[in-house]
Amino acid sequence: MTALLELDDLSVTYRIAAGEVPAVRGVSLSLDSGAALGVAGESGSGKSTLAMALLRLLPRDARVGGRILLDGEDVLTMKWGRLRAVRWAEASIVFQGAQHGLNPVQRIGDQIAEPLLVHDLVKPDGARKRVAELLEQVGLPTWRAGSYPHELSGGQRQRVMIAMALACSPRLIVADEPTTALDVMVQAQVLTLIKQLIAEHGISLIMISHDLSVLADVCDRLAIMYAGRVVENGPSREVFHDARHPYGRALAAAFPTVGDPASRLAPRGLGGDPPDPMRLPTGCSFHPRCPVALAECSTLDVELWPAGEARSAACVHVRAKEEIS
Ligand SMILES: Nc1ncnc2c1ncn2[C@@H]1O[C@H](COP(=O)(O)OP(=O)(O)OP(=O)(O)O)[C@@H](O)[C@H]1O
């Protein structure tokens, strides 16, 4: 497989009145064509900022560094015309909470048709047929094209968002907490739909969630973020069942099974809160909460270190173990 997307030392800093917020710090990740990558972490770890950066959807106060290579082309330096062509047609995004992503006064069918018409992929008289196909693909009856968003349930609205994301047959879909606002049963249905669609259409997926069990269920690989950094990266099952970073282990323990309502809790065994990005601890950002921190962790910030086959983790314990072996 070849890499469809490569993030190379990506950083995002928001400039606000009080100073600078380093929301994403030096993230390097790669996504193979047809593969699914899950990005997990607590609230504030920088997941949504990362997702928005991929399609240059960040607000103006965000300063972005590094490279985002989509099929070898840097999204960050693309001209606006090219970027407009890439959005929807090559990469599209499904946001968290579908009610915010849909226009309340426009019919569903017209909203799904919009990216198709903007990208000139159908003529106005062909749009209706393609919209019907897309509604069927996401498990909605075709007559729903005439409905307004408020006439649909949360799960149905999220299906509409997925239909919009699929409309222009992109190669990459970025899904930011696509099921978080849904109840457990509907969440499972939407996850099954996402899995089925990416497999059928060979679409690559980046899925963002604070719920590691959901990601492990859908994605081939997982990246765990803490305070804007990737602290662990590897094949899903291995990271979920045997994380090498102490934060990864705490996060996995908090989410024993997909959609478990009890899993809306803080990572098990961890005290305290994630750090304020404007006042990051010295050394490893995780050390004040880490159950296995050593004295050196307050001064030493370990980079991602190889932690087995196609895995890495940013922890002194991992580095020590790998150095010995
Ligand atoms: N527009 C903005 N201006 C300033 N700071 C921001 C902005 N957007 C996000 N941040 C800050 O950047 C950091 C990362 O936020 P982000 O929303 O990316 O995290 P997240 O992991 O997606 O969290 P959540 O799961 O709560 O959405 C946080 O400290 C947040 O307060």
TrEMBL record:
Keywords, in A-Z order: ATP-binding, Cell membrane, Membrane, Nucleotide-binding, Transport
Compartments where found: Cell membrane
Annotated ranges, domain ABC transporter: 5-252
Domain of life per record: Bacteria
Gene3D superfamilies: P-loop containing nucleotide triphosphate hydrolases
Gene Ontology cellular component terms for the protein in this record: plasma membrane
Keyword Manganese: no
SMART domains: AAA
UniProt-listed NCBIfam families: oligo_HPY (TIGR01727)
Family according to the record: Belongs to the ABC transporter superfamily.
Record protein name field: Dipeptide/oligopeptide/nickel ABC transporter ATP-binding protein
Species in which this protein is naturally found: Nonomuraea cavernae
